[in-house]
Amino acid sequence: VQLVEYGGGLAQPGGSLKLSCVASGFTFRTYWMFWVRQAPGKGLEWVARIQGDGSNLNYADSVKGRFTISRDNAKNTLYLQMNSLRAEDTAVYFCVRSNYYFDYWGQGALVTVSS
Amino acid sequence: DIVLTQSPESLAVSLGERATINCKSSQSILYTSNNKNYLAWYQQKAGQPPKLLFSWASTRESGVPDRFNGSGSGTDFTLTISNLQAEDVAVYYCHQYYTGVITFGQGTRLEIK
Predict the structure, then answer these.
(1) Are B102 and A46 inside 8 Å of each other by CB?
(2) Is residue B92's pLDDT more than 90?
């Protein structure tokens, strides 16, 4: 199992960024997938999740209305579109496979929101 | 939302000794229909993603040394590390997946004394 995130970087407040996570080594379409973030020196916070077939989506209150999770099962890829970014969104964003618990994590993509 | 409170926030233990980390849930995370506690433990070393140690409160992941033990039920859970080794230095998190709004404990930093 491998999860590799792409797309991190620097964004201005109010700007946008899109993360991707390419999955391999398992049947991607059968798993719920999550984005979990970790602000510098802080703990873990779940951001969004999506069911295997994409039919159910949920968001943390802190990102609802600004972030959109999606997936392309043909490409084994998970996405996180982040709009209206704020300084407090600065964090490492992990792509995570869910088996109820979180059994596989990507290495993470650093998103920095600063002017 | 379920709040998970870990204690202590940090601890320093001598090599070869035992470390004990507690995780207390604001409500029971035992699902009585299957008698499973919806709690996991993770280890996060500096610069790395978290690594799953235990699921269902006490089911050890493959490859995790048996020096590590997860226990507890309902609202009170414990991660015990016996015969502490230098490579156990990390931050440890508990995580409940009982409800749709999953939550983590704030983390416990383990160091060598």
Answers:
(1) yes
(2) yes
Record: contact B95-A103, CB cut-off 8 A: no
Please give the single-letter amino acid code of residue B11: L
What is d(CA A97, CA A2) in angstroms, rounded to the nearest whole number? 10
Calpha distance A83→A80 (Å, rounded): 10
Residues of A in contact with B52 (CB under 8 A): 101-103
Residue type present at position B79: L
pLDDT for position B5: 98
Please state, in angstroms and rounded to a whole number, the distance separating the CA atoms of residues A113 and A104.
27
pLDDT of residue B77: 98
Cα A49–chain centre separation:
8
Distance (Å) from the alpha carbon of B22 to chain A's nearest alpha carbon: 16
Is the pLDDT reported for residue A100 higher than 90? Answer: yes
